[in-house]
Amino acid sequence: MASIAAPGKAQWSSRFAFIMAAVGSSVGLGNLWRFSSEAGTNGGGAFILIYVLAVLFVCIPVLMSEYMVGRSGNVANAVGSVDDVAQRSGRSRNWRGAGWVGMLAGFFIVTFYCVIAGWVLRYIFFFLLNDFAGMSPDDVAARFIDFISNPIAVLPWFLAFALITIWLVSRGVNEGIEWAAKMLMPAFFVLLACLAVFALVTNLSDGGTAAALEFLYVPDWNEMMTKNPELSEVFNVGSVANAALGQAFFSVSVGSAIMITYGSYIPNDVSLPKAAATVAIMDSLVALIAGLAIFPIVFGSGLSESAGPALLFITLPNAFEAMGVIGPVVGAAFFFLAFFAAITSSVSLLEPSAAYASEKFNMSKSKAAWVVGGLMILIGLISVFGVGDGGSTPALDAIDGFTGKVMLPLAGFLIVLFVGWRMDSRIVHEQIKGEGETLGNIIFFLCRWVAPIFVGFVMVTSIMAYIRGLIG
Q1: Which backbone phi and psi does 441 adopt, to 5 degrees?
Q2: Quick one: DSSP state of residue 385?
Q3: How many angstroms separate the Cα of 169 from the Cα of each of 156, 231, 347?
């Protein structure tokens, strides 16, 4: 039997529902767009090897830490959870700043995430209507640049996606977030597997599959160190390691208060160590399978693997167009896949702020979601209208840069320090005892002695990179 939640705290209806919601939060455009982009620009297999190690030894400890804080707290929101646990541990209430930084990071991320997801939504219809028929690669690139450079064209798709997100959050944990995850994530997994098989099989004869497998799974350290020949080898290795650690952090959704909030809904009979390991590993498998769905097509079509963010909206549409009659079908299926991934992530990014507003101001969850969601839309308009020449997105990039390079690493570092060194050991033991306790003790050891070093490395190097970008 599941234990009774603290007054006012909802609970996931089952372990399956929680896993689907947590994986849905982690699996997003970061697995399709950002992971492929980072892998392509950082040497492929070498990057992926570091990424996998980062997930196992850094992200799982941070993830379990966030679950522990969330379930231990007597409220649902991340700020209140950290505050409550800090007080019960006899520590300063200033630790709640970790919850604030994470919650605000998630909120600001979702403001521009809905913009990018709006692009995804529009691309579904581009392919359904076969709008790319007969276009040259330059025409496909121009279509994307023209679209994102026109705020009036982007606006309805941004609003549509944002309103879907708000509506799902307003329905609450069980009828909204959980329902969406249980419906969409199984469909996502099936569609992703089908696309991966399709990409691998159809690109066998042209060498795309072999090239993709070698690129993704055979580390080439020399290639990694020559990506930026003007820099030293030591710096290149550090740069790729930082990129891999940062991607792992971003992908598993740690540091944004999501998993503290989701952790507050976990029944006491669910093993947190097993849950953390399951969610992180499933998220990583999705990223790796996404690589199998993307790179065979890229290499088979003779396109660049280091196209960066343009990979999703320019490189792949060119590849789909080259497939002939089946191109529009495959393209629409791929962007449906991206939409499923995006909606479960955007819901999770908005949930911490809605939970905080609901409890702080004694509002219903539905009202809180629409109030916070309205603010999200207003700020999101900055990214919609803040476009520059040639399809540049300075406003979106600025918010992305500050949240990703400063706020997420800082929040994750504070949480892992708090749980590893300041949280009452009795509360820690209470959260990991029972099923999976041995695994929990191993993960907690990593939380104390390993994760702080590497999360601190990500934080320092990311903030330095952010500052260099500002003054450079």
Answers
A1: -65, -35
A2: H
A3: 20, 46, 6
Q: What is the spatial distance between Cα 347 and Cα 167, in angstroms, rounded to a whole number?
A: 9
Tokens of 98: 């970790």
* CA 368 and chain centroid, separation: 24
429 is written with which tokens? 């033991």
Q: How many residues does the chain have?
A: 472
Residue 325 backbone dihedrals phi, psi, to 5 degrees: -60, -40
Residues 47/241, Cβ–Cβ less than 8 Å = no
The one-letter amino acid at 67: Y
DSSP element (H, E) containing 266? none
For residue 313, the tally of other CB atoms under 10 A from its CB is 25
Tell me the backbone φ, ψ of residue 257, rounded to 5 degrees.
70, -5
CA–CA separation, 247 vs 391, rounded Å? Answer: 24
Residue 254 DSSP code: -
The pTM of the full predicted model, rounded to 2 decimals, is 0.92
Number of other CB atoms surrounding residue 229 within 10 Å: 8
Q: Enter the tokens of residue 459.
A: 């934080």
Average pLDDT, the chain: 89
Question: Residue 7 pLDDT more than 70?
Answer: no
Distance in angstroms (rounded) separating the CA atoms of residues 20 and 208 = 32
Mean pLDDT of 31-55: 83
pLDDT-derived band at 408 (thresholds 50, 70, 90) equals: very high
Q: What is the pLDDT of residues 74-120, one digit of tens each?
A: 999 999 999 999 999 999 999 999 999 999 999 999 999 999 999 99
Q: Dig out the tokens for 369 from the structure.
A: 């979601």
Question: Is residue 314 predicted with pLDDT exceeding 60?
Answer: yes
Q: Are 258 and 76 in contact (CB under 8 A)?
A: no
Closest of 341, 317, 387 to residue 185, by C-alpha:
341
Residue ranges of alpha helices (H) inside 207-303 are 208-217, 221-225, 233-251, 258-263, 272-300
Region of 253 on the Ramachandran plot (φ > 0 left; ψ -120 to 50 alpha; else beta): left
Residue appearing with tokens 């646990």:
85
